[in-house]
Amino acid sequence: MRRGEKREVYLDNAATTWPKPEQVYLATDRFAREVGGNPGRSGHRRALDSGREVLRCREALASLLGVSDPSRIVFTKNATEALNLVLQGRLRQGGHVVITSVEHNSVWRPVRALMETGVECSIAPCAPDGTLDPSEVAALVREDTRLIACTHASNVLGSLLPVEEIARIAAEYDIPLLVDAAQTAGRYPIHVEGMGIQYLAFTGHKELFGPQGTGGLYVAPGWEVEPLIYGGTGSLSESAEQPGFLPDRYESGTLNAWGLAGLRAGVEFVATRGVEKIRDHEKALTERLLEGLESLGKAVIYGPRRWVERIGVVSFNLEGISSSELAYLLDEEYGICVRSGLHCSPLAHNTAGTLRQGTVRVSFSLMNTLEDVDYLLGALEEIAGSL
Ligand SMILES: Cc1ncc(COP(=O)(O)O)c(C=O)c1O
Hints:
This protein is an alpha/beta fold. It contains twelve helices and 13 strands. The protein has two domains: 9-21 and 274-386, Aspartate Aminotransferase, domain 1 (Alpha-Beta Complex), CATH 3.90.1150; 22-273, Aspartate Aminotransferase, domain 2. The strands form three sheets. The protein has a seven-stranded mixed β-sheet with strand order 2-8-7-6-5-3-4, with helices on both faces. It has a four-stranded antiparallel β-sheet with strand order 9-10-13-12, covered by helices on one side. Pyridoxal-5'-phosphate (PLP) binds at residues 78-80, 104, 106, 151, 155, 180, 182-183, 203, 215.
């Protein structure tokens, strides 16, 4: 390959997936043009149709994530809001929380803010490749621990964390577990009830292929917390009190129904393709990338090597060039979109030893091909050769 042979290759799916499946665009457009009412707010046909669309999205997610009662899934505008709902709701009164050393800022910043109000936090140390021995979590549990929060997979290192083992530890102490599934929902099998998870936060716009501005939270029965926001729900309007039942308790204000129509199409696309098949596809891409990077000789690769310990998110650096310069060159000269820097997770970079330089991050979706990987490797070889 020579410079100038430029095509567009999108490899920033951990930030948001693109392109979306055709049916996602169509479903959003159809909802906007043909449905249009406010879900749960009026009794006319458009409002009822809109409410049905939202319910179908909830049902599709419940089926994909192993939730028997779809009303336990509440919609938020992204994973960050879902994580805040639980962190603030559970820790507002104080207490102790255990998190891990690869959490995203969407966990770390609310926890830091809560620490200003007296909450105490212990951080379970992951290995430099982002993997975690669950006994590190068990060792930090205290009498006043009110929550364990753990990402399912690191958005920097691609490492999978042992959430099932951590769920067993949490159950032993009767502490609820909050799992951040922003990077795994849609690309890694999740059965919330089978795994014993009390709160699962997910985002709609990554591997579930929905539009931006969609996301949600699963809340297990008996583990409800105070809402993050209060307001109109279309239900019990005569009462000044927020409804106690789900999903209304946590869904004040008009939902992003256009987005949820698209999210349903995305979730159905994932279900039809099959999460295991999606994972197999990402395995082929990731292994090709890892082998190619190793044979370049000039790449430092972070995160676990073995597929069973990871997802299709790969961080690396090339000797002799900064991560931001490399990402810029890939975009400008080859039309390749990757992300550089700290990826909103200084904790993970501290764990990997890359806080100063950051990393280049390549992240796949089902839409990528082996040709995309080869094109990237060709570009990296040229750049490495010219340094
Ligand atoms: C692990 C992890 N958690 C949370 C988030 C936040 O997701 P959102 O921006 O959709 O709120 C991200 C986004 O990159 C993430 O990778």
